[in-house]
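Hello,

I think I submitted the flavin-adenine dinucleotide job twice by accident. Can you confirm which output corresponds to this input? Input:
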Amino acid sequence: MAIVIVGGGHAGGQAAASLRQEGYEGSVTIVTEENYIPYQRPPLSKQYLSGEFDVNKVYLRPEKFYETKGIEIRTGLTVNEINRKEHELICNDKTVIRYEKLLLATGARARTLDIAGSELSGIHSLRTIKDVDAIRVDMAKANSVTIIGGGYIGLEVAAVAIEAGKQVTVLEMEDRILKRVATPEMSQFYYELHRSKGVNILTNCTANSFQGNGGEVSSVHCSNGLEIASDLVIVGVGIVPNVEIAENAGIKTSNGILVNEYCLTSDPHIFAAGDCTNHPNPLLERRLRLESVPNAMEQARVASANMLISIEKPNAPELLKAYASIPWFWSDQYNLKFQMVGFPTDSDEVVTRGNVESEHFANFYFMDDAVIAADAINSPREFMLAKQLIGKTVDKSALADPNVDLKTLTTT
Ligand code: FAD
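Support: Only one job matched these inputs. Its output is below.
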């Protein structure tokens, strides 16, 4: 029996490890178009960009792990086509790989900007090790760095660049940074933080074109007429899920590869996990496409368990594991650890615990008097307990009082 995993990101790497942890002894192959063994992306905009981590610290597990566990990794190989009838993958070098069960962990790619001057050198996306290696070369010689997009990745890059002594500008087309994911208060918190460090943040500002000099970017022209001198530009305007090989094979997709609660696609032998999926969340009662490590890891675990069940006990669908997690996420900027669970933007009331000025606090978000989300700055204990409060009705004044141990509220 052969299980093949397409994609060597967090989901692909975790799925292979989980298959062995669950005792699967058949063949496991990871096919990944990148030239690296499975790696984690979060350090790419943080410690790997700053030079604090070398590439070995970015890998999910050392190469030896896969050798010991008998997991084959085929790097630098792209799956071009899935032949579902024959259970075969056709790769870019014409290699054909057979599968009994297939996991699509194809992730996503950076969205690019289609504006004049995009072909100039010095303009980068940030999704892969290769991207960051190129950014680091350009960053070393750059004076002025412009970041297009005020999301978490853009702001993490801004933090690294300003600490490296660059002149940094962030362009955000919305009226506030982090608008898609954070409340106005958290947007304001991060706005003030970055401003205090010297980052220039321009909101309601869209990049219209790039100007160059000798083939290299020299400035960004904005919708409001501003021209921003830039010798390095990082484009952080979101991602596009990699669904094409699934779609071309007739697997159902819609803003991601459609899976059910068991991480199963519309083909009974093909599962999917991670950023590429559009999946149901029974706790939130809606479908989601997420871009986060905890989701990629959990879906990979669920998909692996279910691939094994479908091999070993194909007639026992009642044994399948269902995915049901409240989404959570983190971001590191300067010396601040931000953690978030649930969707704060859905709330109708917020209770803050701790002190915003001292950069040590947690916000608890309510809807109809139940906690639906929380975010925390430099407060990992509060965050851990906040996760246990989701869905509960708690005494708001006790929640706001740092003298009341949060643990006592989790048991009510
Ligand atoms: P990916 O990591 O995208 O991996 C998919 C892999 O599949 C890629 O290597 C791709 O090349 C390969 N592939 C695709 N198609 C094919 C094919 N046809 N053939 C062969 N190979 C293929 N999340 C957090 O929770 N916290 C953070 O702080 C955080 N920071 C981030 C910082 C950066 C810079 C980035 C880019 C992301 C960050 N994320 C963070 C998001 C997180 O990294 C992703 O959610 C996670 O990587 C998703 O893992 P994945 O395995 O689903 O997909």
